[in-house]
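S.,

Sequence below, as promised.
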Amino acid sequence: MSAATVARCASRCGIAAAGGIAWILVGYPTSLLLARRRPLRTDASAMPSASVVVCAAGAPGPLVAKLTALRSDGYPLDLVQVIVAVDGPDTLRAAAAAASP
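The prediction came back faster than expected:
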């Protein structure tokens, strides 16, 4: 490869890098400002459903606390599916069943 070819390639790479930096610093923020904003929907029909998997082993105390926190976080309970994977004694399974939202 000749020195002129290497210089041309380096120049083109520099221009491409400068263009990328200009897009990141100026173009993208400007496009966000000019983009049409969608209204924020706050009704329950706009909220997605969620699945939460809780793994439990050992003492039931932390499991009950986690399930109670899931129930009291304010998300509609009919949109939440809670899956509790229990690897422990029957008392842990009973505590999970009693505390599930």
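The first strand starts at residue 50 and ends at 56.

Coffee later?
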